[in-house]
Specification:
single chain, 11 helices
Length: 243
């Protein structure tokens, strides 16, 4: 998976002028956002484990209770949970899987997109997952994890490879398997996965398909429009819960 995306980064360098990638990023910049996100997620997990006195039952911690995403609490005004829930994980396997996926996919995507654009795709994937949960979960149900953001990167990778005319077989296979797990394995939020996937793919499409002559304004405007749409969906979900 990672090697395939490295190829797309190199091809992106050849397809544009002035040594930038197809997204307009400096291909020589070392990934910084991905390791920072991994550290933040690990720190949040460590805090919940210490507070709960258990790695396996870290959901009992005060931080988890205050940060997890639940449509009812967001509808009551606790909007920060749309973001903070993306830094929480339920048990060691959950965080191990998400951090591994973030590390493998994220570094190449950050190189291709650039730090700021990558961060936009990551958080829009997170917001897309949260929006789907707000719309499709019950008021008292909760969800946590970086899965929405990670699926946003998976969707973004598929779009980037399509833009660069690279093979999609591995990415499509990965998406199919992981989406299927969300439908058939209890405790996995397929809603957050689908929402993150769609949002990340849309955000990446805006970035990599923007014409070089008008790249910056089109990227900023497109990402802002996606953000507004997702916030409208979140608001609609909150109104449905409160009605």
């Amino acid at each position: 998976m990672g090697y395939q995306c490295v190829d797309c980064v190199h091809q992106g360098q050849r397809e544009v002028r002035r040594g930038t990638t197809v997204a307009g990023a400096d291909p020589g910049a070392r990934p910084l956002v991905v390791p920072t996100l991994v550290v933040l997620n690990l720190l949040a997990f460590a805090v919940t484990a210490v507070q709960a006195g258990s790695i396996a039952s870290n959901t009992r911690s005060a931080l988890f209770v205050d940060w997890a995403l639940s449509p009812g609490t967001v509808a009551a005004g606790e909007w920060w949970r749309l973001v903070t829930s993306g830094f929480l994980h339920i048990g060691p396997l959950h965080i191990a899987f998400n951090m591994f996926a973030l590390w493998v996919i994220g570094r190449d995507m950050e190189t291709l997109l650039g730090r700021g654009r990558f961060l936009s795709v990551y958080f829009l994937g997170m917001l897309g997952g949260a929006a789907a949960v707000m719309l499709l979960y019950g008021p008292g149900e909760y969800v946590a994890g970086a899965s929405g953001a990670v699926f946003g990167l998976m969707g973004g990778l598929a779009v980037a490879l399509l833009r660069l005319r690279r093979p999609l077989n591995q990415v499509i296979g990965l998406l199919v398997v992981n989406l299927a797990l969300g439908f058939f394995v209890p405790g996995i939020s397929w809603q957050a996965h689908v929402g993150g996937l769609l949002a990340g793919a849309a955000a990446t499409a805006v970035i990599v398909y923007a014409p070089p002559a008008r790249r910056a304004p089109l990227q900023v405007g497109g990402l802002a429009a996606i953000t507004v749409v997702l916030l409208v969906v979140v608001t609609a979900g909150a109104l449905l819960v409160g009605s």
